[in-house]
Every structure is written in structure tokens, then in C-alpha cells.
Design brief:
single chain, alpha/beta, 11 helices, globular
Length: 318
């Protein structure tokens, strides 16, 4: 990776990945793009880009002579379910445009899939790398189609496509962005600000999660991996932890003893969560490119509370 184009660079993953890539490869080596102007990423090249505009994407990629595309622009699960046609047009239209640019300019390519690619008939526990994928959400349909499309571009055109199936991602840097697993981010904000949180996900609902530093390292590690060792290439299962709302609340109470949590279940997001696995098997990623997560729920909670405290105090001017 010598010159990298990042789409959706102001989103949950993109905002932090762009910073880490610039730190690792140099500020001028990472071209950040998004549909809107943001305050972040002013330390390197930034372009406004609507990923449904294939011509504009090609022009930007050619202008900067990129050799790697990291395509992150997408509508997330709960938002996609509320606006399914928009989700299809953005998620699939943007992906095929990015793949076409990668094919035309001979770029290495990354895009994330998700545990949303699984459905209610998928094995719930220790979900295998290769298994039944019959999602019941538009987001999930997009992700399955995207996995297959990336495989197609690899097999048909020789594009070096790579990807992972991310679980819920937890970060203190960017606010929640319309995902089903966002409660696991919101809970930390509310614990610090109000010492209470009302969960829209029901008690006892397990979902896989990952702390953002592990997610960023996974992307970079996979992209730098020896292609000859990648049997699956796209949509590797990755995970770090699996917990229910009451378990993350218990971890928070170790640091904020008077924290309290109640429940007001959102039927739409609960139905999405119920269709996903409780835990997934990341053996293929471990064996093929050495994936390893560093954070469990206890280590993550401690770091989240420290970093988020610092962030909120800085924002308030205290």
C-alpha cells in the first residue's frame, strides 16, 4: 500500500482508520473522501465524493494515482432498515463503482462485511466461516451480495479483494451512527454523563463485539498479509468478545458503582439483533493471516471510560 483512497472517511471506521493509516504510511499517502466536508483529516488530502458517482470516484483515484482502495461508505443496519431503497442504491451502487475503479486501475481493495450477513437460520453459537447466510434485513442482503461481488471481481478480473465480517464496533472517537449494536457505545456516554442508561436491546441478548483498535489493526494486518496464504480472501469472521447488555453494565459498575440500567426494547433493532449470531468462529482469520484481538470486555471498558471522560471534559471546557 503506497497510495490509499478511503471512502466514507468521516464515518465510524473511516475517521479512525484514516488517522492510523496516515500515521503508518504518511499523511500524503492517504486520500480521505466523504460526501460531506468534515473537520477531521485536514492533515492530508481530502475530497468530497458521492460514491454513487462512478466517474467522480475514478477521477479522484486516477488524480492521486492510488494503488489501494478502502471502501467504507455505507448505511448501517438500523438506518438501512428504515430506508431500504436508499441503502441498496448506496451500499451496492457504491461498492460496484469502487470495485470497477479497482479493476480499471489495478488497485488492491478492502471493504468490510458484517455479522449482519448472517440470519436467523445461521448457527447461533460459534458461527462457522462458511455457513448458511439468509439475512432478513436490507443491510444483511447488501453484505451477502457484497461478499459475493468481491469474490466475483477476484475470480473474474483478478482484483486483490479482501474483507472481514465485523461484529459490533465500539469506539470513543465517533458517536453512534445507526447500527444495531450502538447501545454498546451509548451506554458509556450515558454512564459518564448521567450514571444511568436505558437499553433498547433486551437483557440476555448476546452479540459479538470488538473494540475499534482491534478492528483497525485487523484491516491493516489483512491488507499486508501474503495473498498466497489467503484461502478465503473475503469476509473473514473476526471477533473479540460476546456479551449481553447486563454484562457490559456489570463491567461499568466496577468503575461507576452507582450506575443503573433499565430496558425499553426497540422492536426493530431487537429483531435485527435476534437474527444475528451469539458468537462467531474466527479460526480462518487466525490461521490464514494471524488475526488476534487484544481487548476483552474488561480491558475495553476500562479504556473506554478513561478516554471518554477525557473527551467529554475537553468538549465541556472543564
Amino acid at each position: 500500500m503506497k497510495k490509499i483512497l478511503v471512502t466514507g472517511a468521516l464515518g465510524q471506521i473511516g475517521s479512525e482508520l484514516t488517522t492510523q493509516l496516515r500515521h503508518k504510511y504518511g499523511a500524503d499517502s492517504v486520500v480521505a473522501t466523504d460526501i460531506r466536508q468534515g473537520e477531521n483529516h485536514q492533515d492530508g488530502p481530502f475530497e468530497i465524493l458521492d460514491v454513487t458517482d462512478a466517474k467522480a470516484m475514478h477521477e479522484i483515484a486516477k488524480k492521486y494515482q492510488v494503488d489501494t482502495i478502502m471502501h467504507l461508505a455505507a448505511l448501517l443496519s438500523a438506518t438501512a432498515e428504515a430506508k431500504p431503497l436508499l441503502a441498496w442504491n448506496l451500499n451496492m451502487g457504491g461498492l460496484v463503482n469502487a470495485l470497477e475503479v479497482a479493476r480499471e486501475l489495478k488497485c488492491q481493495f478492502f471493504t468490510p462485511s458484517s455479522i449482519g450477513a448472517f440470519g436467523p437460520t445461521t448457527p447461533k453459537d460459534n458461527t462457522p466461516q462458511e455457513t448458511i447466510q439468509r439475512p432478513v434485513t436490507m443491510y444483511g442482503v447488501n453484505k451477502v451480495a457484497g461478499e459475493l461481488l468481491c469474490d466475483y471481481y477476484s475470480q473474474k478480473f483478478g482484483v486483490d479483494t479482501r474483507g472481514v465480517r465485523f461484529p459490533g464496533l465500539i469506539s470513543y472517537v465517533t458517536p453512534p451512527g445507526g447500527g444495531t449494536t450502538d447501545y454498546a457505545v451509548e451506554i458509556y456516554y450515558e454512564a459518564i454523563k448521567n450514571k444511568r442508561y436505558t437499553s433498547y436491546i433486551e437483557k440476555g441478548t448476546y452479540m459479538d463485539m470488538m473494540y475499534m483498535p482491534d478492528a483497525l489493526n485487523a484491516i491493516i494486518h489483512l491488507m499486508e498479509a501474503d495473498a498466497s496464504k489467503l484461502v478465503h480472501r473475503n469476509a473473514f469472521n473476526v471477533t473479540a468478545m460476546s456479551f449481553a447488555p447486563e454484562e457490559i453494565a456489570a463491567e461499568i459498575k466496577k468503575h461507576i458503582p452507582d450506575f443503573e440500567m433499565s430496558y425499553n426494547v426497540d422492536p426493530i433493532r431487537q429483531a435485527i439483533a435476534d437474527s444475528w449470531p451469539n458468537s462467531i468462529d474466527a479460526t480462518a482469520a487466525q490461521q490464514e493471516w494471524g488475526f488476534k484481538a487484544e481487548y476483552d470486555v474488561a480491558k475495553m471498558t476500562e479504556d473506554m471510560l478513561v478516554k471518554l471522560n477525557e473527551k467529554l471534559h475537553a468538549l465541556s471546557g472543564n
